[in-house]
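lol ok so funny story. i was supposed to be doing the assay writeup but got distracted and ended up predicting the structure for this chain instead. priorities right. anyway since i did it might as well share w the group, maybe its usefull for someone
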Amino acid sequence: MPPVISVSHLTKQYPGLRAVDDLSFTVEEGGVYGFLGQNGAGKSTTIRMLLTLVQPTAGRIELFGKELYAHRHEVLAQVGTVIERPDLYKYLTAYDNVRLMSELSGVRADRARIMKQLEQVGLADRATSKAKTFSQGMKQRLGLACALIHNPRLLILDEPTNGLDPQGIADVRRLLRHLSREEGKTILVSSHLLAEMELVADSMLIIDRGRKVAEGRVQELLNPDDMRVELTAADPASARAALARSTWATRLEPGADRLLLRLARTEVPALNRDLVALGIDVLALQPRHSLEDYFLSITQSAHAPAAR
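and the output, tada:
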C-alpha cells in the first residue's frame, strides 16, 4: 500500500525568499504525524501546497499514491482540513454549518450523523446556536466537525488547538487518538504545542528554514539513553559544589540557574543514591528529556527572513 502522503524535493521560492527548500517526507496510513517547526519554518506554506492552495516551484506531491495535480479533485475529496481559523458561516447554526459542509462535499448527511459529529467535538448542546456567538475555541471544534463530516481518509490540521483552554486541548488530543486508533484515519497535524505533540504523535517531521532537520518515530527520536535530569535541592549552591567534587562532575551542566545532569535513564537510581550519600537535601528529581529539549537542540533560535 502506498504512503498516504509522499513529498519529494518540494520547493517554494518567493522573490528573495525560499520558504520551502528541497523538502521530502512520507506519511504512512493510520498514524498521527506531527509537523513541527518554529514560526517561519515553512509549515503553513507546505500545508498549503499539499492542498493546492499554493503552487510549488519544484517537487512532486502524491496523495494516496496519485500525483496531486493530475488527480486533484479525486484525492482532495478524501481529505478533511482545518487551516488556522476555520471558514464558517457565522450567521448559520452549528448544525447548519456542518450540514452545508456535508452537501458541499457531496455527502448528504442525515440529522443523526450531523448530531453525532457535533457530539464528537463537544458541541451537541450548541447545535442550534449561531457560529457568530462561539468563542474561538468553539469555532475550532466546529471546524473539526465540518472537516470530518464526509469521513475523510486523511485529516490535515494546522494549529487545531488555537484558542482552546486546557480542557479543550485535552479533548482534541483524545479525539485525534480516537480518529487514528479506532477509525484508522491518517492525521497530519501542525502545532507549536510541543508537549501535546509528544503525547499524541506517533511520528514527526521537524523543519527549520524550510528544510527537514529530523523525521522518524517519536520514541526513536527521543533517545532514553541521552536525557537531562533536573535536580531541585534545598541549597542549590552547596548541591552544585558537592556534585562538582563527585563522580557526577562530568555530567553536571554549567549554569547557575538550574542543576542539570546529562545521563541515561538507567543511571537515575544510582544518582539518587549518591545524592543521599553526599548529604544533599533533594526536593525533586525530574527528567527533562522531552520533545521541547530535542526540538530546541536541532532548530535555530534566530530566523531572518523566513516564511510562516
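The first strand starts at residue 5 and ends at 14. The radius of gyration is 23 Å.
back to the writeup now i swear
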